[in-house]
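Lecture 7 notes: from sequence to structure.
We start with the chain below.
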Amino acid sequence: IAIQKTKANNIVNLQYTSGDQMLFKGISGNFSTIVTDIPTESKTVNFDFVECRDEDGNNYTVVKIGNQVWMAENLKTTKYLNGDNIATTIPSNLNIGSETDPKYQWAYNGAENNVAKFGRLYTWHVIADSRGVAPVGWHLSTNDEWNTLKNYLASIGSDNAKSLSADSDWKYHASIGTIGHELSGNNFSGFTALPAG
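Predicted structure tokens for the same chain:
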């Protein structure tokens, strides 16, 4: 069985076996969308490009899983939606445990070169702030939304943890079925969860 992919006016056949899980990524300008499918016959795969840009101007890849659209990258903004800067601590491991309303963001391990891949870490107080940090039209997911995602993945026979986890960067684990075992079996959903934070 084959899928035809058009690229620069060339058609490339993508071979697969019935039942294989396929992940497609479409890019148009600053928009990037991931679609997953388990094809059983010839079909057209459509990409809905959804704007997902933060206050710093970072554009994010999105993924449609079931009937939901999720960000497929970690947030990396340093600003609230109104343009106010979100503070950071110096050093990055400063103890803020005694603060009653700590509003900070950091690069993973305090290294700015980690931001492009891993995004930033935020305190709950930043996430809950009324100024907002999620891109316009986006929000912090609710427990019900996570349950919808979990139930959808279970309904198609996917292991939740492995299906949501990136196929790189996880520490190897010998136990079959764990995220760190056989990374090539990860990320069917295109969600691309990374081990950071």
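Points to note: The first helix runs from residue 115 to 118. The longest strand covers residues 22-28.
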